[in-house]
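Weekly sync, protein design subgroup
Attendees: M.S., D.O., the rotation student, P.L. (late)

Item 1: inverse folding check
M.S. brought a backbone from last month's batch and wanted to see whether the design step gives back something sensible before we order anything. D.O. pointed out we never logged the input encoding, so this time it goes straight into the notes. Structure tokens as presented (293 positions):
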């Protein structure tokens, strides 16, 4: 099978796994209530998967030397604090308060934020595509979150969730720039492995505090969502990047927010309206324009 076609297939599965993960996270965080605790519960199964993957690829021997310290570890821990500890915790809060149909698409603007941070911190140029894409994506956020259907819940709570989703996107964007520095010297699989171990260590107190309130269904959803999102989804995205490059990979995986709206309606009975679908499409289009122009 040609590399391009295989890359498209991998990108499609990446989008599906990320969308499924968002749906499962929503079910988990509504029951667990604490976003930090939910962030912990989704990590163990994903960590086991990444450790097995690193071992099978012959990369696990790199981890002990990486953990001894140095700039590589410092960059990974900084990026993980920004993107995973802060960003993903805000993302859990967004899913809890605004639902998948709004929280996920609004947070997905992060590639544009990453480009802005790259301009500010790495000296990259502002392109016409970035300016147009950002305007389109921000308009999409407004369309998605303004006057949401009553079936999605209290409007004040939804606005709180939208704010959390925007903040999550900013954390992901800044974290992405730092990760770009980290993966220059370390295999991406091991970057993922270290970030999951660090996430578990940092959020353990919150998981311990919530342990007695977590039901089996919520625990299963968090574990499985972590495996699909942090494990399979993220790894397949790395594979996709190596096969078809950043531009095509980012463009093809932008279908994930649209898939998430469909899954949220089928599995969670979220009653998203036409505005949410249109807003998500505008956000996806904005990211695509920024990548290609």
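Designed sequence read out in the meeting:
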């Amino acid at each position: 099978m040609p590399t391009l076609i295989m890359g498209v297939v991998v990108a499609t599965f990446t989008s599906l796994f990320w969308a499924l993960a968002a749906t499962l996270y929503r079910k988990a965080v509504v029951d667990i209530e604490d976003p930090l605790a939910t962030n912990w519960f989704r990590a163990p199964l994903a960590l086991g998967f990444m450790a097995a993957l690193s071992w099978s690829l012959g990369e696990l021997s790199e981890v002990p030397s990486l953990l001894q310290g140095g700039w590589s570890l410092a960059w990974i821990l900084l990026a993980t604090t920004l993107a995973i500890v802060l960003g993903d915790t805000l993302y859990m809060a967004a899913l809890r308060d605004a639902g998948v149909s709004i929280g996920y698409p609004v947070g997905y603007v992060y590639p544009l934020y990453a480009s802005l941070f790259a301009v500010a911190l790495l000296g990259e140029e502002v392109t016409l595509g970035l300016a147009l894409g950002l305007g389109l994506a921000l308009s999409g956020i407004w369309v998605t979150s303004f006057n949401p259907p009553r079936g999605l819940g209290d409007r004040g709570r939804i606005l709180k969730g939208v704010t959390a989703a925007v903040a999550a996107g900013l954390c992901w964007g800044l974290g992405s720039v730092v990760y770009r520095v980290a993966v220059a010297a370390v295999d991406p699989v091991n970057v993922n492995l270290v970030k999951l171990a660090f996430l578990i260590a940092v959020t353990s107190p919150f998981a311990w505090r919530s342990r007695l309130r977590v039901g089996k269904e919520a625990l299963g959803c968090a574990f499985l969502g972590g495996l699909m999102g942090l494990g399979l989804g993220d790894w397949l995205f790395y594979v996709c990047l190596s096969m078809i490059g950043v531009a095509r990979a980012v463009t093809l995986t932008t279908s994930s927010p649209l898939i998430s709206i469909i899954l949220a309606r089928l599995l969670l009975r979220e009653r998203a309206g036409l505005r949410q679908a249109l807003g998500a499409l505008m956000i996806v289009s904005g990211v695509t324009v920024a990548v290609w122009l």
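Discussion: The chain has a mean pLDDT of 85. The radius of gyration is 18 Å.
Action: P.L. to compare against the previous round before Friday.
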